[in-house]
Design a protein that fits this description.
The chain is α/β, with parallel strands linked by helices. The protein has a single domain, classed as Glycerol-3-phosphate (1)-acyltransferase. Helix content is 45%, strand content 15%. It is built from 9 helices and 7 strands; from the N terminus they run αααββαβαβαβαββαα. A 7-stranded mixed sheet has the order 1-7-6-2-5-3-4, with helices on both faces. β3, α5 and β4 form a beta-alpha-beta unit.
Length: 245
């Protein structure tokens, strides 16, 4: 419980003491939006690294060479833990936003930092609003901002399983003409979810797989990109679990 309390104290302190930083970032954005993007990413990544340190989590990263340096990408990953964003954000090269559920907008200050790193907020119950979010995502990736999405649509609560990947999650990559990077995360729930409410030391493996050009897929896979990418992630997941756990 001590680690959980320390994480809560740190997060509260970061949000409250970071209010002047939010103001500074707003001013910077008026004159130099690119600098604001980079500085906001650096601040958020620092905060997440502190949380990782408090939790005692060891992260093994594989496949960074698979991330193109000349284009935005859509990271597509399995989703098992509240900490998935905390553990991945500092690893991503460049500014990367997340497609998050609209309920996150209820959290003051946190939502402002999320907006600063170009997170999008998806209304899963409103098709029209959901489409607007997808179109906004297309604009983001065309401007050079990468995005990360969890196509299962919600946090999977069962270890070593995968919920169906929603095909609509891939429209950002398709219409934005950018590659998909399968993002494989193993044992992220070992930090917290597997033994609520305690936080325990754990080793997590995060692997970036080879980029996928959706336009190069077979006709059948183009119709079901979710199943295709889910297959890649699940196979790699069990390979990594066998290797490290």
């Amino acid at each position: 419980m001590i680690r959980l309390i320390l994480v809560a104290i740190f997060l509260f302190s970061f949000l409250v003491l970071g209010i002047p930083l939010l103001l500074a970032e707003w001013i910077i954005g008026k004159f130099n939006p690119g600098l604001k993007d980079r500085s906001s990413k650096a601040i958020v990544a620092w905060g997440f690294r502190c949380i990782r340190f408090i939790t005692g989590t060891k992260v093994i990263v594989k496949g960074l060479e698979n991330i193109p340096s000349d284009t935005a990408v859509l990271y597509v990953g399995n989703h098992r833990s509240y900490l998935d964003i905390v553990l991945t954000c500092p690893i991503f090269p460049g500014v990367t936003g997340y497609v998050a559920k609209k309920e996150m907008l209820r959290w003051p200050l946190l939502k402002d930092w999320m907006k600063n790193i170009h997170c999008l907020f998806l209304d899963r119950d409103n098709i029209k609003e959901g489409l607007k979010t997808i179109l906004k995502g297309v604009e983001e990736v065309k401007s050079g901002i990468s995005l990360c999405i969890f196509p299962e649509g919600t946090r999977n609560k069962v270890n070593d399983t995968f919920l169906p990947f929603h095909d609509g999650s891939f429209k950002i990559a398709d219409k934005g003409n950018i590659p998909v990077i399968p993002l494989v995360m193993v044992n992220t729930a070992g930090v917290f979810e597997d033994h609520l409410p305690r936080i325990k030391r754990a080793t997590v493996v995060i692997s970036f797989e080879e980029p996928i050009d959706l336009k190069q897929l077979s006709k059948e896979d183009k119709k079901n990109p979710g199943a295709y990418v889910s297959g890649i992630i699940s196979r790699r997941y069990f390979e990594l679990k066998k290797e490290y756990f």
